[in-house]
Specification:
Shape: globular
Largest sheet: 7 strands, mixed
CATH architecture: 3-Layer(aba) Sandwich
Oligomer: single chain
CATH superfamily: Gcn5-related N-acetyltransferase (GNAT)
Radius of gyration: 15 Å
Distance between the termini: 35 Å
Strand order of the largest sheet: 1-2-3-4-5-7-6
CATH class: Alpha Beta
Strand content: 35-45%
Order of helices and strands: EHEEEHEHEE
Number of strands: 7
Number of helices: 3
Structural class: alpha+beta
CATH topology: Aminopeptidase
């Protein structure tokens, strides 16, 4: 099976963002204002040329961190049929590397509580306590610190 991780146009990521992260909601609920910000990039994982995973990366500081060149991971998802098959790890590793090439000091995300173990496998730390995002559920602020 051929696997590809590549930079994607934002329009390519909306179907999976809707299916996995906003099920039952309109496709418009998947349009994040940050998607068209300068410097943003979106990744898509494909298996035999079929999209199976997505992730978006934004140059964005978080008030809990002091790093000058911080990036945010948002909207990461894999379709149910391939969950646990390694596509998420490949997507995140590619995103970490792309952010590194852009000079990132830190990559952060609001991670669903159910995904803590996934992020911890890739050396993400937790900052603070669990919090709720309305209509989505419990999350933790997580971060990846780049070593220079």
């Amino acid at each position: 099976m051929a696997t590809t991780i590549r930079i994607a146009d934002v329009s390519e990521i909306y179907p999976i963002r809707n299916e996995v992260l906003r099920p039952g909601l309109s496709i418009e609920s998947c349009y994040y204002p940050e998607d068209s910000r300068d410097g943003v990039f979106h990744l898509i994982a494909e298996q035999n040329e079929v999209a199976v995973g997505i992730a978006s990366f934004y140059p964005e500081k978080h008030p809990e961190f002091t790093q000058a060149n911080s990036w945010r991971l948002r909207g990461m998802a894999t379709v149910d049929e391939v969950r646990g098959a390694g596509f998420g790890i490949q997507l995140l590793q590619k995103g970490i590397e792309e952010c590194r090439h852009k000079g990132a000091d830190l990559l952060w995300c609001n991670a669903r509580t159910s995904a803590l173990g996934f992020y911890q496998k890739l050396n993400f730390g937790i900052k603070g306590d669990e919090f709720m995002i309305e209509n989505i559920g419990p999350h933790f602020l997580m971060y990846y610190q780049y070593k220079r």
